Amino acid sequence: MLQRVFLAICILLSIDGWSAPAQVTIAYTANRQGEIEPCGCKIKDLGGLARMEKRLLQLRHEGGLIFLEAGNAFFTAPKLHESRIKLEEDRAERIAKSYRLAGLKALSPGERDFARGAPFFWDLIRKSGATAVSANLESSLRSGSFKPFLILAEQGVRIAVVGLTSFDAVTLPADIKHKPPREAMREAWKSIQKEKPDQIILLSHLGAKEDAEIAREFPGIWIIGSKSLDFFNEPKKVGNSFLFEVGIEGQRLGEIVIEKGKAGWARAKLTELDEAYDKKRKEK
Asked: How high is the pLDDT of residue 9?
């Protein structure tokens, strides 16, 4: 009798003590380009802030969530026609408020994010609730400053997030200074290594060629790109590193699932934000 009771207790303790491995989803977006509504495409009507918010809420219910933006979020172009300024500003503020609601942690800017100047950019950052990260940009304004990198901890997983931006032919805002991206990355890399994160993620607005070169120079890094306007249904491996691209106008949400204590990712995919997210949840 005592043996049966002891066995039953052991089984109950075993069941009670079991739990699924802690997991974190890195959700990422890029190249929203000021778009707040679905694309209206005939084949697949994708995108829209409301759909993104719903998907992020689902992910938050599934476990830890870190939401990141890799650049070109707020405006359709680096320079705006005078007739569009008010519309573009209103949409940019709507995006910033949506990002705050969704819990955006970090944003690394693209050229288009400065379309209304550096002061307006910093106002959007404050409204988004995110931290602006860039290892190669410096601001001379008191209203805001870039952090070279962030360490974000979720479910016991520590993620380092660093940002890089190139401007090419686009005029650099007067209040922003720009350092060579590769040189800035080398400096940041040394500091990041001292923090011993589980994973390093680069939010890159450099372009596909430069991303691949950085992937080779910094083994193991995950690079979320925003300048090539491409999308990868599966990450591209370059040496021991990986490249991620999510496409344009918020049509898809990138998702990388990490399980605590395991190297690499458990799953990595793009989720199409389609009409299914418009439907109300059925009552159980």
From this structure: 42
pLDDT of the residue at 282: 42
For the record, the structure tokens of 111 come out as: 């050229």
Does the pLDDT of residue 17 top 80, yes or no? no
Second CATH level (architecture) for the domain 23-278: 4-Layer Sandwich (3.60)
Question: Taking the chain, what is the end-to-end CA distance rounded to the nearest angstrom?
Answer: 43
Quote the CA–CA distance of 147 and 138 in Å, as a whole number.
Answer: 9
Among residues 134, 195, 129, the alpha carbon closest in space to that of 159 is found at 195
Domain locations in the chain as residue ranges:
23-278
SS (H, E, C) 66-131: EEEECCCCCCCCCCCCHHHHHHHHHHHHHHHHHHHHHCEEEECCCHHHHCCHHHHHHHHHHHHCCE
Is 104 within 8 Å of 129 (Cβ atoms)?
A: yes
125 token code pair: 């950052």
| pLDDT value of residue 168 | 74
Q: Which residues does 107 contact at the CB level (< 8 Å), separation at least 6?
A: 68, 69, 71, 73, 99, 125, 128, 130, 131, 132, 133, 163, 203
